[in-house]
Write a structure and sequence with these properties.
The protein has helices at about 5-15, 30-45, 55-70, 75-80, 100-110, 145-150, 170-175, 205-210, 220-225, 250-265, 285-290, 330-340, 385-395, 460-470, 475-485; strands at about 95, 115-120, 120-125, 135-140, 145, 180-190, 195-200, 230-235, 235-240, 270-275, 300, 305, 320, 340-345, 350-355, 365, 375-380, 400-405, 415, 420-425, 430-435, 440. It is an alpha+beta fold and about 475 residues long.
Length: about 475
Amino acid sequence: MKIDKTILFICLLFSLFGFSQNPSKEITKDEYLADFDFMVRIIKEQHPNPFRFITEKTFDNEAAILRKKLENDPTYINFHRFNPLTLIRDAHVNLVPDAFVFESVTKTMRFFPFATTVYDNRVFVNQYTKAIPIGAEIISVNQQPVNDILAQVADRVDGDIVASTQKNFSLAVSCQFPTAEFFTLTYKEGSSKQVKSIRVKSVNYEKYDYNNNKTVLPFTLLAYTSGIYGYELDENTYILSIKSFNLSEEYAYYILNNLFTSIKEKGIKYLVLDLRDNLGGSLSNIPLFYSFISREKNFKNIYKYATKVPSINVKENLVDDNNKLANASDIISLNNFMKQRFDLNEADGFYYGNNRLDEYYVENYPQDKNAFTGEVVLLQNNNTVSAAAYFTYMFQINQRGLIVGQETGSCSNFTTAAWFLNYKLPHTESIVALPRSELFFNTTANKDCTCRGVRPDYSITADQFQEGLQAIEDAEMNLALRLIKK
């Protein structure tokens, strides 16, 4: 599944603390609580497996605590702040506020004046500015330690995955101090232990957006627009960045075939495959992409969709892709889709996708005729999620090469990246997006109550990350290049 960056921003904005803007219409306490209760209901009745990472009893207890907080202070931000969706630890579940509210927020809030990047729970300045050196480590803002601010940002990961890169610190600070005219921050430069202090003026949303479009990292942006971009580093080494698998098969094959034909003709020996910030896409593309680096003539491409909830159990407030309420015909169509493509396995209670589900599914996938069989190092980070995690999993189990970077944001053996149901809450008008199925990177739905992402063989330290940022160098890429040439 590919997640739109604007939607990501909206979701992050309302998952943070400290927001004080009200929507255009007055919402009563009872209406907030009604929408809260509806979210609890659809989690229990419509999510494909809501209690994988939390027991229903614990969920009920923690949801009751959140509901009480909302009841004591029923504001729009607290509705989003105390929502129960985050309790189930599913990175693909979203609560998206109404667009008109979002627009009014950006026009009235004040924002943190520097673009930042987070690595290993440390925050670094990620832009050129006269006020503070690039790469400086921020220690506190308005007398609050960085770790305390980061702790208030919900992890957008699955299960028990440990991640910090996916957190937007600048946005978190802005939401915690939405009316601040000035920010007082302490920081350190490089390896210096001296802590400096500075007082800077806040900015409006336009300037905040400008700063975030002028960051130093990531160093190359070309792959973000096309999904795929490669270049020859030297006569022996090729860098290939893949930032999305949400491409048509025809386009993907055309680009990959041209790239790997050139790599083969030039006798390239080393390939660095960069999947950092890849938010996933079409699952059927994963074996296609991998076929270009497979060393085996045929490799296993095994995945299975499974759900415990194949039918639409909650019909009210269901909307289509155009935000219109679903009618009876729409619901029948959605149910028929699952009924025709999912069969019950009585042994474990899961409905599994059958052969009708994916016409492109090939279990024994052939190596491409232009496949690269030299040395490969894969780069990944906390923002390598969804279908991209399946690629890194396939890379790992086939022992194709070393992995450098950070743990993926999606589980190493399953995810919830499939079709979605959207519910428009009747009073707050926010949209809840729920996946319809889990996706397992094998043939059986496991019953694990924990999960971790694909973990790297090598990582850089936060100090090395900072040194690279200050030197305008990609420290993770440099590590990958050193390793591959050993």
